[in-house]
Write a structure and sequence with these properties.
- The protein has a single domain, classed as 3-Layer(aba) Sandwich (Rossmann fold), CATH 3.40.50.
- It is built from 10 helices and 10 strands.
- The strands form 2 sheets. Strands 6-7-8-3-9-10 form a 6-stranded mixed β-sheet, with helices on both faces.
- α5 crosses α6.
- The longest helix is centred in the last third of the chain and has 16 residues.
- The chain is globular and about 45 Å long.
- The N and C termini lie far apart (36 Å).
- The protein binds adenosine-5'-triphosphate.
- Adenosine-5'-triphosphate binds next to α1.
- InterPro entries: AAA+_ATPase, ABC_transporter-like_ATP-bd, P-loop_NTPase.
- One of its GO terms (molecular function) is ATP binding.
Length: 240
């Protein structure tokens, strides 16, 4: 069943088309890779899904309802963003970073309740990172940080996770653990949508790939089939 969809989306900046006629529908339990050359429009799609941008044409639909009329709180409880593992200078403990996911529920109240703490602990337990709870977030490795940011998204209560190049800066082992985790969550019915610059891994790991070329969908289908040598060559050859 479709949980999140784009219906004939068009988006321009300064009169320049960035996305044209982009349509797709994603169901629960799908793990979707969004691939394309630099500037193809991947991040723009993520930002539209999170309603950080508004489409010029078409609609983004969550459970069949347009995002346009949805409250910020409702949206945040359904769709969570996992940014690239960013560096922080403040000495937050991991538990506090995960509890920040509850801000969507507490409407930005600075008070984190016992319930919020319990949700944060549950999310860390779910991802088997409870042992990091009292560590400083700033002192974690890139892979550990990504795990914490995913826990924050789970603490938010969202079942749809939107990740921006989650493998960036991670070594091979950390990448593998991260993708295993994403696959595990998809197996539990979470919807995972991630941009990536690694077509070979996407072909092996994701259930589905959407290939974006110059703001249009070039291919959309089972990742292992869609990501052939030929399509990968076309996708990344800007002059072709
Ligand atoms: N704030 C902005 N103002 C003007 N143009 C922008 C802005 N953000 C993005 N763009 C343009 O929109 C197009 C799509 O950008 P987007 O970031 O979605 O691409 P991407 O596929 O995510 O690229 P990358 O792989 O480099 O992250 C690019 O041509 C980019 O220059």
């Amino acid at each position: 069943m479709t949980v999140l969809a784009m219906d004939r989306i068009g988006f321009s900046r300064d009169g320049r088309p960035i996305l044209q006629d982009v349509s797709f529908a994603v169901g629960a339990g799908e793990m979707v890779a969004l691939l394309g050359a630099n500037g193809a429009g991947k991040t723009t799609i993520l930002r539209l899904l999170l309603r950080l941008l508004h489409p010029g044409r078409g609609k983004v639909l969550l459970d069949g309802r347009s995002l346009a009329g949805m409250g910020r709180r409702e949206l945040a409880s359904r769709v969570a963003y996992v940014p690239q593992g960013h560096a922080v200078t403040f000495p937050y403990k991991v538990r506090d970073v995960v509890a920040l996911g509850r801000l969507a529920e507490t409407m930005f109240s600075p008070i984190v309740s016992a319930g919020d703490r319990a949700a944060a602990d549950a999310a860390m337990g779910h991802l088997a990172i409870g042992h990091l709870a009292d560590r400083s977030y700033a002192a974690l490795s890139g892979g550990e940080r990504q795990g914490v940011l995913i826990a924050r998204a789970l603490a938010q209560g969202a079942r749809i996770l939107v990740l921006d190049e989650p493998e960036t800066g991670l070594d091979y082992g950390q990448q593998r653990r991260l993708f295993d985790l994403m696959r595990h969550l998809a197996g539990e019915g979470y919807t995972v949508i991630a941009t990536t610059h690694d077509p070979l891994r996407a072909a092996r790991t994701f259930t589905r790939a959407i290939l974006l070329r110059r703001g249009r969908i070039m291919e959309d289908g089972p990742a292992g089939q869609v990501l052939s040598e030929q399509t990968i060559a076309t996708l990344y050859d800007a002059d072709a």
